[in-house]
Amino acid sequence: MSNPDLRICFVGDSFVNGTGDSTLLGWTGRVCQFASQRGVPLTYYNLGVRRETSADIGVRWQFEVMARLPEGCDGRVVFSFGANDTTWEQGGVRVKTSDSLRHTGMILLVAKRQYPVLMVSPPAIADEAQNERIAELVGYQRQICEGFEIPYLDVFTPLRRSPVWMAEVRSGDGAHPNAAGYAELAQLVLSWPAWWKLE
To answer: For the chain, give me the number of helices (H) and strands (E)?
Structure first.
């Protein structure tokens, strides 16, 4: 690693934040903890905000990332969002699919011009109707990332089948797991070759 000032911003929603994890690590803390234990000197910033949609993230991400990745550092950005877009409220989803994809495309287009970028899909929750909407969004997000040549990790599919993740989500608030669930998500990221290239 040529630049010892490695900084990674994780931008997204409550799943990036690690909501529900009694250890307060979430998946982002776990993957960075593992990297640190391997001797990788990094600074990580958790920029996850509960209930935020792609529209909300589109408004704030650039200012927040710029403040944390100044000129001269080895800055990287990992995005993960979308579940809140698919939440059904007041007779419709919070963000229409077409708008969600437009926001995602703009975010990634700008980010890729400035930083190495990865994207992690939204995970599964306890509501199967919403899971169908998330699954559709994951497919579209993957296509956008492929078009921009940005690595994309689908954690939704394996977590939807995971007894640990789903049990913790159901026993919690219906969306967020506890520590064991986030540990499973972290392991998916740690098993992803693109993560190690980012590091």
So the answer is: 9, 7
